[in-house]
């Protein structure tokens, strides 16, 4: 089968790492990068260190408002789909790149496959919720990371084409964990001692675009009994500067540039705990046996909370501070989100 895979943002490059590998064993893959993320530390580093094939197309769309960015992707992706005439378009997750490619496929001939189907936050103010719901409802193949996601799809009336595969993010981390922990020099470079720091990430629009929420997140993290290292997404850097919070953040936290995946996995492995509003990082914390404090009111990865390994604290400084001090023993860790072979299941399901 000729598959046109579309990526555009950091988490999608990481998900494409195992999936592209599995697809190329038995299918023809054309890889398209929309250019949504373009800084070397948000894009090139992942292709280089993970050996992801170089994209056949980079559409160079770049940043912009939701409408302009998505519209530009629609136009450029449509041209690629016309030129390549793939049998199937494959998309990941919930970004604007995901939605644009889904709409192009839905309005043209190719079938559509969605990796990470069936996840819901229930929060319609998140752009990602709109992207993932619309993408699922256009898809012919829906690759769900867990049975709960398949159940969500059933409740929404989607019953055919659903495959519970496990999480391709688990595949990715298993592939690099040893290499990252043994090979990365990030702890030395950042002068961190394993087990003696908290790893934080913040980039969700709901937190960065609201100055009160962003300030509360910074103030909550600042109350951590251990130093907090914060590899900073450019969106958050811009927001901290715009909202006059830059000095408050850099005085209290160890703010560093975003790091590559190998360094990030090493930082996760060495962290005492994790505080994040990322989707991907919540479950990566679990995969590496770290407790997670989630800086949001809801999560798509509900099993991590049900299992007692993740706590939702929102943007409430006191709740964040309490969660960073909580040392109640964790319950036994359940096995969630597959066995590390989700990518192979996806390739196999597409074999037909
Ligand atoms: C996007 C996704 C989000 C995902 C995140 C992963 C959407 C709506 N959001 O959010 O779901 O969790 O990627 O990291 O698709 N910027 C740079 N350099 C870059 C890219 C972005 O400086 O290489 C800055 C620009 O100022 C840009 C801002 O970051 O306006 C936001 O980038 P954008 O891709 O629109 O959204 P993210 O916040 O990255
Ligand atoms: N990540 C990384 N470097 C960083 C921060 C995150 O490599 O500085 C990785 C992380 O391991 C995870 C992915 O990026 O696999 C998560 O991306 P992000 O939080 O940007 O997006 P989300 O998952 O929220 O969509």
From TrEMBL:
Signal peptide from the UniProt entry: none
Domain UDP-N-acetylglucosamine 2-epimerase as annotated: residue spans: 25-351
A Pfam family hit: Epimerase_2
CDD domains associated with the record: GTB_UDP-GlcNAc_2-Epimerase (cd03786)
SUPFAM superfamilies: UDP-Glycosyltransferase/glycogen phosphorylase (SSF53756)
Official protein name in the record: UDP-N-acetylglucosamine 2-epimerase (Non-hydrolysing)
Organism: Halogranum gelatinilyticum
């Amino acid at each position: 089968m000729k598959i046109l895979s579309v990526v555009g943002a950091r988490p999608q490059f990481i998900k494409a790492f195992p999936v592209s590998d599995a697809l190329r064993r038995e299918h023809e893959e054309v890889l398209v990068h929309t250019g949504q993320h373009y800084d070397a530390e948000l894009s090139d580093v992942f292709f280089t260190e993970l050996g992801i094939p170089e994209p056949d197309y980079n559409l160079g769309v770049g940043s912009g408002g939701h409408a302009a960015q998505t519209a530009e992707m629609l136009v450029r992706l449509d041209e690629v789909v016309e030129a390549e005439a793939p049998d199937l378009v494959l998309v990941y997750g919930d970004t604007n790149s995901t939605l644009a490619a889904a709409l192009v496929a839905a309005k043209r001939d190719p079938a559509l496959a969605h990796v990470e189907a069936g996840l819901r936050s229930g929060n319609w103010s998140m752009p990602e919720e709109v992207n993932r719901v619309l993408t699922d409802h256009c898809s012919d193949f829906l690759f769900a990371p867990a049975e709960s996601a398949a159940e969500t799809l059933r409740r929404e009336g989607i019953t055919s084409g659903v495959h519970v595969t496990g999480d391709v993010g688990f595949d990715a981390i298993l592939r690099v964990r040893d290499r990252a922990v043994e090979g990365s020099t990030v702890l030395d470079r950042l002068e961190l001692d394993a087990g003696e720091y908290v790893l934080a990430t913040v980039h969700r629009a709901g937190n960065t675009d609201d100055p009160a929420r962003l300030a509360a997140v910074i103030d909550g993290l600042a109350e951590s009994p251990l130093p907090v290292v914060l590899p900073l997404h450019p969106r958050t850097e811009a927001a901290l500067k715009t909202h006059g919070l830059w000095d408050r953040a850099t005085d209290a936290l160890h703010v560093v540039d975003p790091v590559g995946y190998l360094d990030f996995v090493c930082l996760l492995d060495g962290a005492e705990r994790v505080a994040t509003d990322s989707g991907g990082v919540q479950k990566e914390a679990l995969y590496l046996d770290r407790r997670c404090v989630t800086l949001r009111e809801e999560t798509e990865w509900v099993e991590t909370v049900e299992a007692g390994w993740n706590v939702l604290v929102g943007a409430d400084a006191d709740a964040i501070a309490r969660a960073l001090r909580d040392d109640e023993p964790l319950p036994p860790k359940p096995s969630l989100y597959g066995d590390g072979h989700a990518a192979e299941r996806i390739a196999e399901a597409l074999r037909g």
